[in-house]
Amino acid sequence: MHLYYRAPRTPLLRNTIARLGSHIDSRGSGGYVVAAGSVLPHGSYRILDDRPPIPLPSWLIELLAPPPPPAPPHTGAPVQHRDAYVQAAITNQCARIRHARSGTRHRAVLLAANSLGRLVGAGLLDYAHADTALLDAATVHIGVDDFTAEEARRTITDGLTYAAHQSPPTASGRA
């Protein structure tokens, strides 16, 4: 069963899964639903009440509104590195994370962490330096479509740690 309401302009409501309860999903900005007239193998969707949607009740708006994002873990200047190649890698991988869309965020964060993790394993980049830069980039997504700081932290740690242990040290012996 689908219930349709007019969503408010603010706050911007996004899609949720089971936030209101088991088997209750909501669709907001960027979401879509199967509408009346659609035919599926088990039957077709049909309209039971053709009145125009009413405004979403305020108590539902409060339950569906995304939580405010936490303060970024890094509040200073952008992370800088003395080596131009390493700095370009940091800049590019952080951009990959910042520009990731919903549905691709986890993969983007993991790939970025893997990329910088190889530099950590090669002794070209300090783990804490990479971790700080990636976490800072991921903060733009926290609170959007149920993306959490914990998910960002876990994915970055997994990617950095895995790739750092797969990379051989450089010829200079740094590790």
Automatic annotation (TrEMBL):
Do you know which InterPro entries this protein is assigned to?
DNA_primase/pol_bifunc_N (IPR015330)
Q: Give the DNA primase/polymerase bifunctional N-terminal domain ranges.
A: 2-59
Protein name stated in the entry: Bifunctional DNA primase/polymerase
The source organism is Nocardia suismassiliense
